[in-house]
Design brief:
This protein has helices spanning 2-20, 26-55, 61-89, 91-108, 115-143, 149-175, 180-200, 243-269, 276-300, 304-322, 327-354, 361-389, 392-430. It is mainly alpha-helical and 431 residues long.
Length: 431
């Protein structure tokens, strides 16, 4: 009788554990889809607007990069505050507020006729993107069970990565007839879909949602919250524990900006323009195929097992791209970089969250995206400058070198300090 009770109890416990650690909940799917549409809007415009500047406004490489940079500057200026607002006012509320302004900015492009007004709208658009993306990422981190955080955030960033790759291809398709109204109508529809999914999202403690239906990881971490000290302090806006790995993300983003901002111009230069969309699709497929495995490896082993092979493949892909003369070589470089980049982004974001206190998840996400956006914006500008002074081959060669530097930055800022901390902990336990 006792053995029977134990068997039933063990079976019930396993079932309860599986329920508690479930990743694909209604809330998780909702936030993933909402984030996908938001990021898709961003990356469609990241590709199409530089072409709009080149083809319709007759701007050069630096002006093309400025369209991206001014957007990122808006995001960078608001990022330190966005994390604090998310922690203070609530994740869902800030996600909706950010997406409402995001959609209004998309609609405002219809009324911009001059370059100055266009850049002002881009600046405001970047600010709204920063608030919405910080809030949505914090929602995802809150919903995912702690025991499967690497896998769960890997799936979440997979949607971001798919948008990062599908977006440029869609942007090229929408701009092929050089009709700005068609492009703007499409991105307004996509942004509205993102806002719609954000509205139906429910968070713990919200009216009408049973607390028992929420995984333990999604409960608001009230017990760990500490009262904030008054005054202006840097750690009110940035999370110090997330800063080292976020700086490594800055270097990676700096290198990656050369792909989404200038891939179309590069393929034009080597007379392989027909392969641009296929390159991004191949890149996306590699991310999707390997992402489930990557998340499980992160949860089971140390992050170093993912990072060093990932950055190595990404750097090799950049070097191959700089020497590409044929469509096959461009696509092969896309395969290599897709596998490498697919391992890096979820690794960085999950580490930023895991290394930070639970009640500072919003600030941790804000810190990570601040550095990532800053790298992307500065990278777009300086990579465009390199291309204008030399050519796109040299630009991608430099991007590969920056990726190698990123490996060194990871070792100095994260790997070595964590190893030393582990040794000190072991020595303290022995003593």
């Amino acid at each position: 009788m006792i053995q029977h009770i134990q068997k039933v109890s063990n079976r019930d416990w396993r079932a309860l554990t599986l329920l508690r650690d479930k990743i694909w909940t209604r809330n998780f799917v909702t936030i993933c889809v909402s984030s996908f549409f938001m990021f898709l809007t961003f990356y469609v415009l990241t590709t199409a607007f530089p072409l709009y500047v080149r083809d319709s406004l007759h701007g050069g490489q630096q002006q093309m990069g400025l369209v991206i940079t001014i957007y990122v500057i808006g995001g960078v200026l608001i990022r330190p505050f966005s994390g604090q607002w998310v922690d203070r006012f609530g994740k869902r509320k800030m996600a909706i507020i950010g997406m409402v302004i995001f959609l209004l900015a998309c609609l405002s492009y219809f009324g911009t006729k001059g370059i100055i007004l266009f850049l002002i709208v881009r600046f405001i658009h970047g600010m709204s993107y920063a608030v919405a993306s910080t809030a949505m990422s914090t929602v995802a981190a809150t919903i995912v069970p702690v025991s499967r955080q690497g896998e769960g955030m890997g799936y979440y960033t997979m949607f971001m990565s798919i948008a990062m790759v599908v977006g440029p291809a869609l942007g090229l398709f929408l701009w092929k007839d050089q009709n700005i109204n068609v492009l703007l109508l499409a991105i307004c529809i996509i942004a509205a879909l993102s806002l719609g999914f954000a509205f139906v999202l429910k968070m713990p403690g919200e009216k009408g949602l049973r607390t028992s239906a929420i995984p333990a990881a999604a409960a608001e971490p009230i017990a760990q919250e500490q009262p904030e000290k008054k005054g202006w302090r840097l750690n009110h806006f940035l999370e110090p524990a997330a800063l080292p790995i976020s700086l490594v993300g800055f270097i990676l983003s700096f290198a990656y900006s050369s792909l989404s901002s200038f891939m179309a111009s590069f393929t034009d230069e080597i007379h392989q323009s027909q392969v641009t969309g296929t390159f991004f699709m191949v890149f996306a497929v590699m991310i999707v195929v390997f992402r489930p495995v990557i998340g499980k490896v992160f949860d089971r082993y140390k992050e170093h097992y993912l990072y060093y092979p990932g950055i190595g493949l990404f750097a090799v892909g950049m070097f191959l791209l700089s020497q590409a003369h044929s469509a096959a070589m461009v696509l092969f470089a896309g395969v290599i970089m897709g596998i490498g980049y697919g391992a890096l982004l979820p690794c960085f974001q999950t580490l930023a969250i895991k290394l930070s206190p639970e009640h500072r998840r919003g600030s941790a996400n804000g810190t990570f995206f601040l550095m990532f956006d800053l790298g992307y914006g500065l990278g777009s500008y300086f990579m465009g400058m390199i291309a204008s002074l030399t050519d796109y081959r040299m630009m991608y060669l430099v991007a590969g070198i920056i990726a190698v530097i990123c490996a060194g930055g990871y070792y100095i800022l994260h790997h070595r300090p964590r190893a030393r901390e582990a040794v000190r902990t072991q020595q303290a336990n022995v003593a």
